[in-house]
Design a protein that fits this description.
Number of domains: 1
CATH superfamily: inorganic pyrophosphatase (n-terminal core)
Radius of gyration: 14 Å
Low-confidence stretches: none
Strand content: 15-25%
Structural class: alpha/beta
Shape: globular
Strand order of the largest sheet: 3-2-1-4-5-6
Largest sheet: 6 strands, parallel
Number of strands: 6
C-alpha cells in the first residue's frame, strides 16, 4: 500500500477518470483502482471518491464496479486529487477536463509512449496496459476477486 500512499499524499477528495470512448483497459484500470481505494478508504484517509467515465458498450457490462461510475459531471466539484488513467493527453479526458483543471493536484497513470505528461505527477511507464501498471501499484495480497475482474 506504500506505493499508493505515496501517490495519494493524504488526498481526502479523489476523482478517477479515463479517456473518451473508453475501451477495456480504460474501464478495467479505472474500476480496479476505484474498488481498491474504496475498499481501503478508511485506512488511506479518503473521504470522497468518485469515478467518471463516458458511456461504454454492452460488452463491458460483465466487469465489476460499474455501478459506481458517473457518466457526467456538474463541473463545479473541486477535488484534492484527480487521477487520469489510460489517457495520453488532457484533451482525451473530454468533459471531465473541467474538473481536472480545478483539482488541487493531478496524477497521470498511463502506458502510451505518446503521453504528453499533462499532470502534476506523471507515472507513465512501459507496460502492456494501464491495468498492468495499476496491478503493480497495489499490493498482491489486497487484490480481491472484484478488483481483479
Amino acid at each position: 500500500m506504500d506505493k499508493i500512499r505515496d501517490i495519494l499524499n493524504n488526498a481526502k477528495k479523489i476523482a478517477i477518470a479515463g479517456h473518451v470512448r473508453p475501451d477495456g483497459d480504460c474501464i478495467g484500470s479505472s474500476t480496479a483502482l476505484y474498488q481498491y481505494l474504496d475498499l481501503y478508504k478508511k485506512e488511506l484517509g479518503i473521504e470522497q471518491l468518485d469515478i467518471y467515465l463516458e458511456p461504454y458498450g454492452d460488452r463491458f457490462k460483465l466487469l465489476s464496479g460499474l455501478e459506481s461510475i458517473k457518466c457526467s459531471c456538474a463541473g463545479n466539484e473541486v477535488y484534492d486529487m484527480f487521477i487520469a488513467l489510460d489517457c495520453g493527453s488532457k484533451d482525451r479526458l473530454g468533459v471531465v477536463s473541467e474538473i481536472f483543471d480545478k483539482a488541487k493536484t493531478t496524477v497521470n497513470i498511463d502506458h502510451h509512449i505518446s503521453n504528453t505528461m499533462f499532470a502534476t505527477t506523471n507515472h507513465v511507464i512501459e507496460a502492456s496496459s494501464t491495468s498492468e501498471i495499476i496491478y503493480t501499484l497495489i499490493e498482491d495480497d489486497k487484490i480481491t476477486k472484484e478488483i481483479a475482474t
